[in-house]
Amino acid sequence: MAETLLTPGHTACQGCGEILAARMAIQAAGPNVIVVQATGCLEITTSKYPQSAWRVPWIHSLFENTASVASGIQAALRMMGTADGAKVIAQGGDGAFADIGFGALSGTWERGDNVLSICYDNEAYMNTGIQRSGLTPTLAYTSTTPTGSKQLGNLRPKKDLISIALAHGVPYVASATPAYPRDIERKVKRAMSIDGPSYIHLHSPCPLGWGFDGAKTIEVAKLAVQTGLFPVVEFVDGELVSWTRVVRPDPAEHYLQAQRRFRHILEPRNEEAIAQIQAVADANIRRYHLTESPPK
Amino acid sequence: MSRFELMEGSKAIAEAVALCRPHVISAYPITPQTHIVEYLAKKVADGETQADFSTVESEMAAASYVLGASAAGARTYTASSSQGILLMSEVLYNLAGMRLPAVITCANRAVSAPLNIWNDHQDSMAVRDAGLIQLYARDAQEAADLHIQAFRISEDSRVELPVMVCVDGYLITHAFEPVELPEQAEVDAFLPPRQTDRKLDPRHPLTFGAFADQAYYMETRFQLHQAVLRSRSVIEEVGADFTKAFGREYGKHVEAYRADDAAALFVGMGSMMGTVEDAVDELRAQGKKVGSLRLRTYRPFPADQICALIKENQKVGVLDKSISMGAGGILASEVRSALHAGSMRTPVTGFIVGLGGRDVTAETISRLLQRLEGPPADAVFVDLKPDLLGDLAETWKSTWETVATTQRS
Description:
The structure holds two protein chains of two kinds.
Chain A: H1 17-29, E1 33-37, H2 41-44, E2 58-60, H3 66-80, E3 87-93, H4 94-100, H5 102-110, E4 115-121, E5 147-148, E6 151-152, H6 161-167, E7 172-176, H7 181-192, E8 198-203, H8 207-211, H9 217-226, E9 233-236, E10 239-243, H10 252-257, H11 263-266, H12 271-287
Parallel strand pairs in A: 1-2, 1-3, 3-4, 4-8, 7-8
Antiparallel strand pairs in A: 5-6, 7-9, 9-10
Chain B: E1 3-8, H1 9-19, E2 24-27, H2 34-45, E3 52-55, H3 59-71, E4 76-80, H4 82-97, E5 102-108, H5 122-125, E6 133-136, H6 140-155, E7 162-168, E8 176-181, H7 184-190, E9 207-208, H8 217-246, E10 254-257, E11 264-268, H9 272-285, E12 290-295, E13 297-299, H10 303-309, E14 315-320, H11 330-341, E15 348-352, H12 362-373, E16 380-381, H13 393-400, H14 402-408
Parallel strand pairs in B: 2-3, 2-4, 4-5, 5-7, 6-7, 11-12, 11-14, 14-15, 15-16
Antiparallel strand pairs in B: 1-8, 6-13, 10-12
Helix pairs in contact in B: 1-2, 1-6, 3-4, 6-8, 9-12, 10-11, 12-14
């Protein structure tokens, strides 16, 4: 058994999908890394002075500059000749990468910097109390997209970071979820082997923010995949090379039922809203051929 | 043998930075900083300088890139101006808080709105509280020299702080002056490679930028304050070594000019102090006992040196190229505070001059000398045009007032 690189003693919630995904990712990456961490739950829960849960070199600077800091580190290692194959990992939440640090992430990708970026997508600003981000899904309740007589939660669709990464020509782009640990391991190892930018989008169910029992994190993560609402895909040099097959997709409603953040469209039942979310799942299924077998 | 040639201030700065062998340079273009980084980019493109030169998507990114590189143990450099410095400000606080060395040129420029690309000091003054060391250059030669010293100060194990070298936009960056640049071997002897064990290294994992609650935060701020104060003796030491190695005089935080027997003293920073010194000579020739003090070091603030150089029976006029809106001239307020702490009752008038590139000439200074005859005041804006002030014209005239205006008309 390899040494645990993200150790117990952190202060994450029971059943936190992000800390699970993060531990799987760092174990797959191994000790020869430098981790740059954006502000957020994963930062706050693992680095409270005078303790640290990290057994790898780790730096937190700000919320929005994570990718830029990572770029600077890889440049320094290259110029000083002290890299020894060490990989720089930039990691943060959906707010850190899709919103406030979006420009920095784009810059790192566009320059082709040798950085693995990992977005832990829990679909809202959880650290500050469940506010909407650009990756909050359609019609989800957050504390800044509340439900009321004039509004049914978040009115806008989830921003598509996978496509945005592909548009930058990022040579390795994948999504994954802690429901499938082997898949995370394989994808992180593959990304580690890329000499250039790579991007992994990790779905990170949040018991507190989404409203489910912390014992059901994996179940909720699986439902996101099985409904087609979170497609698990892998692109190499812009080509879709693999996806997690969903033979007979579950109705999106099953995923909605598992979480309080969608309760307002189920009680009372709002057929139009349910159909709107089902349409998101259907579009993913068609777009990524999720019901078909991926090529071997 | 050193080189002595006529060159643009930006080139002098770029050459000095290149002589310091930075590993990583990152910058985002903003007038009037651009020439500095263009010269550096060309030197990297020509293979003369072995550095990573990264063109990033914002000043926030440039400062962050440098922060990451510094945390990995590299020697780092960036430059900016005005809005760029403000966009960097969050990172500047962060660099200082994590005690990461870096050298940053601020090609001083006014801050918007209204948009203005010309010189004043509002940009660097806006980040004076971050925990940076701030040095202000008088001319191109001093700008070049201070950059070489800045790397050594910044990386000194007793300091480990970012150093901002402030050079007046256009007035220094775009002016051609004769500059003497040292040889590479001389700089190598003066400035050894950066040494630190406190860096991101998989063989010795460390956590940087931890989260500190009420039980720990305040101590770190005290330590940072102490580190900035402690840099004072290192700046003196490095300046003295520089003088030994290259002949030009450094090491003092405050340069006094004909101040000893002066009845009136002008205090300020940057290139305008060259003009002030010329004005002092002219006024002395007319029999007026005038002198000046120039702060080269602004952070750490050399309060006791200022007190030692000012006498109780002098009239002091502080020239601020920036203002804390609703309070007054920032340097004036700090000089007043230093004198008060030193139990001195020297009257201080705060002049706001040269905002957005308005000329400060020897003639301006002689009129300020007239104004010093009047009652001390703060935030006395110099050389405004009353016809542009609308119903504030009278308000302005009442601060500028009496002697000076009479002289003018």
